[in-house]
Amino acid sequence: MKKNTLVMLGGFIIAGAIVFLLMAATPGSSGIELTMKQLLATQGQHKDDFVTVEGLLIEKSIKWNPDKIQLKFDVKDNDGNIMHVVHNGIKPDNFSEGVITILQGSPTTKDTFKAETVKTRCPSKYEGKDMKDYDPKKHEKLLNQPPHEK
Fold this sequence. Notes:
150 residues; CATH 2.40.50.140; 2 domains; five-stranded mixed barrel; flat
């Protein structure tokens, strides 16, 4: 074979291996995003899937076992559906009542979810101020100030 043919063949093999490794290393990219209601209704169909679901934390349900590094808790949705969660990993920082939990993992038994990752967010923390109180002159003044005066 010609030298150019061998180089191109080797390049295709390397490129194929890289694509395969990227797909294998990122299970989230091949996952499914469901609402809690959808997941609970079709839980048996998603046992082998990598699923992303979110719900509101029920603080009274938190059981943290530092010896096993295991976190168990319940989440609920706006319709009142409740799902039990088991996570073998650290407890997020702002783990309190009503915080939105984003779970990635797979459903196990009825109404139970094994989370590989648990993330939290508080929507009120990221909401903007009411636009009726917006003062464009004050905003312009702030933008024109030197950084050390802000």
